[in-house]
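Re: that chain you flagged

S.,

Sorry for the slow reply, it's been a week of failed gels. I finally had a moment to sit down with the sequence you sent. For the record, here it is as I used it:
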Amino acid sequence: MDSAGAVSGMSKKHERLASLFKAGDRYSRERIKSIIGIDEPAGGNWYTGYHRVGNTVFIFSTVGTPARTGHEYGDQWLDDERFEWRGKTQSTLKQPLTRFMLSDDSEVLLFVRESNRASFTFAGIAKFQAAFDEKPFRIIWATQRSKR
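Prediction finished late last night. Pasting the structure tokens below so you have them in one place:
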């Protein structure tokens, strides 16, 4: 796998779930599940960083403070649009979900918060910029984050 690459343009199929959210608005995980019409039980991947629903991967990142699990991975905004994100502790770029989120077939939606009790702010569709095969892996995403 290349350590860096550009994502091709977003197709119509990728616009479906992203169009339900507005960049800069705040959402709880429960509200997001309600908006997209899923009723999954609490716990599991939905509550520990990232989760796939169909062709969409939801990334939930806590920046600058440990998340509720106690982990602080060092996720950070590099500038107004680029976000540096790390996977779960033992995750690699070779895992199926990671490979999928880096593919042209996925829609990746980035939600970020600065406190482990706050709602998440929707940063927008995340487009793959670069990946680093470390443990945990590290990915640079480009977004069109609202500057509110």
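What I noticed first: The first strand starts at residue 26 and ends at 27.

Talk soon,
D.
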